[in-house]
Design a protein that fits this description.
hydrolase, globular, MazG-like_dom, Nucleotide pyrophosphohydrolase, hydrolase activity, mainly alpha
């Protein structure tokens, strides 16, 4: 919750990518690849990869942000695949997700 006791939302709008014919499987694999790149950036920044840290904090955090956006883009691409190839109603799924978060006490 924010300072006013209300839930905060981060709204992000990412485009459907052109020139691709993603499948559910190829998109899931790409999502894992991008998540691995995010983990690598975090691991190097925190010195958890066994390598000496070679980047300044600002540079490392910037890289994490870029990798996180790559993860988000692929997740959005997977949503397009679910809608277009499997007729999943994502608006309904988002509402169900929000209700799940509320039932677990994460949202009020």
């Amino acid at each position: 919750m924010n300072k006013q006791g209300r839930n905060s939302f981060k709204v992000i709008s990412l485009p459907k990518l052109n020139g691709l014919t993603p499948t559910l499987e190829s998109t899931a694999l790409k999502l894992m690849e991008e998540a691995g790149e995010l983990a690598q950036a975090i691991g190097k920044f925190r010195g958890r990869s066994g390598e000496k840290i070679r980047m300044e904090e600002k540079e490392a955090v910037d890289r994490m942000a870029r990798e996180l956006l790559d993860v988000a883009q692929v997740a959005v691409s997977m949503m397009f695949v679910l809608e277009e190839n499997y007729n999943i109603d994502l608006e309904e799924k988002i509402e169900q997700h929000i209700q799940k978060l509320k039932s677990k006490g994460y949202l009020f």
